[in-house]
Each structure stands twice: as structure tokens, then as C-alpha cells.
Design a protein that fits this description.
The chain is mostly helical. Helix content is 58%, strand content 4%. Strands 1-2 form a two-stranded antiparallel sheet. A hairpin with a 7-residue loop joins strand 1 and strand 2. The longest helix is centred in the N-terminal third of the chain and has 61 residues, at 2-62.
Amino acid sequence: MLITATLILLVVFNLSLLSYVQGQQKEAERDQALATGFSRTLKGEIKNALTLSTTLKELVLASDGKVANFSTVAKYLLAENTAASNLQLAPKGKVTEIYPLKGNEAGKINLLTDPIRGPLCRYGISRQVTVTQGPIADCLADMEKYVFPEVSKD
């Protein structure tokens, strides 16, 4: 009788341990799926931002540096992309055009001498590459909601 009771207790213990491990595994898989989804979303947003930069660069190069219809073009670019909330045109590092201007009036600055943006701008100029920068607080706030068990390298 004692042996039967012991065997029953061992079976119950093993089943509860197995159930616990499976629950932990499902939770880890859910967290991994959320992290992967967020990573793909962030990657897509960065790709969209680079597309915006490239489109603006091509527009400026095609019109010899003068963009008469910046607001119109920027309006349509922003309507198609959620990666940016505003676009700036900064010939020789000085922001001359911002769309939308409302709420961004303080953005008309000299990027090259700005203590925050200057180093990245000078880096882009010295290496002749397109750089993007901006607040990503919303993305980071979303990212902090999740626990990332391990980031894949693909």
C-alpha cells in the first residue's frame, strides 16, 4: 500500500513538473514571437526612413539643389511612410525647409554646429553616406515591454 501511494505521488509530481515546464516553454516562445515581430517592425521602419532619405536625396540632386515644391513632395512621402513624422531639407547643414512646419518651427537650425546632431552629420559628410537620426523613444518604450530571451543574428 505504501509503495502504491509513493508511486501515485511520484506520477502526480512528474505530471505537475511536466506541466510547469511546458507552461514556461510556451511563455518563452510567446516572448520570442513578440520580440521577432517587434524586430521586423523596427527593421521595416528603418528601411522606410532610408527610402525617404534616398528619395529626397534624388529629388534634390535632380533639381540642382533647389526644391520649389518641397512641402508637396514631403506631404506625399509622409503619407506613404510611417517611419518619419517630419522631413527636413538642410543644404550645407542648415535646415531651410521642414514639413510639416507647425510644431517643428524650432527645427530650423544649423545641423553641423548643433551639439547633439552635429557629430552624426559630420560623420555622414566625411564618409559620403546618408545618415538618419531622430527620436525613437516610442520604439524603445515598446521594446521595454518585452523580455528578449535571445536575439537571432538573421
